[in-house]
Amino acid sequence: DQWGKHGYVGDARLWSRATAENDTLPRINYDEVSEAEFIERFERPNLPVIIKGAQKDWPATTNWTFRALNQRFSEEKFKCGEDDDGYPVKLKLKYFLFYMHDQEDDSPLYLFDSTFGDRDGKKGLLHDFEVPKYFRDDLFNYAPYRRRPPHRWFVLGPARSGTNMHIDPLGTSAWNALVVGRKRWALFPPDTPKELIKVRKGIDKEGI
User: Fold this and answer.
1) Using one digit for the tens of pLDDT, what is the confidence trace for 67-80?
2) Residue 204 and residue 67: Cα distance in Å, rounded?
3) How far apart, in whole angstroms, are the C-alpha atoms of residue 70 and residue 75?
4) 80 exposed, middle or buried (CB, 10 Å; 0-12, 13-18, 19+)?
5) Which pairs from 9-18 meet CB under 8 Å and 24+ separation?
């Protein structure tokens, strides 16, 4: 089975390599830092930050459990990858949840869907969150919506799932909200030499 050839599902060493000592990102509390302070401390100097409490009042905190999502969207299709020709591969949510809880892949599939806000069956997800105050001034709002590039994603995946090294679409500055579970980011400064982060030949380009 090529999908599990490394046996990562049972390798505790995989998770012990990253420790709190490697985590140097500053934290701020959403209710304590104003938009003006955020701009001066983080947006203007282009620095990453973890924001605590931004989504505490979101309906998503209760609506995005596996059971609740399956009850609302079990028959809806979400993108979980691309085929060899670059076309999207989609699965009904009920089938993906079955796969998610019954797989032992080294680097499992995960949902990464940018169309949920444009499809009638999935638009309910839009009511489960709101854009944090720091990011509401969005230049894309001044463009006709039909010409706007993908700008929001619904992401869902099991342990070990994730993306490989990348720059966000169009070089934008993204915000991510973790609603359920855990997620590990590895961030590199924009001036990091390519040779330090380029995946060596012969190594799988998987998120794990």
Assistant:
1) 999 999 999 999 99
2) 33
3) 8
4) buried
5) 9/104, 9/105, 9/106, 9/160, 14/160, 14/208, 18/184
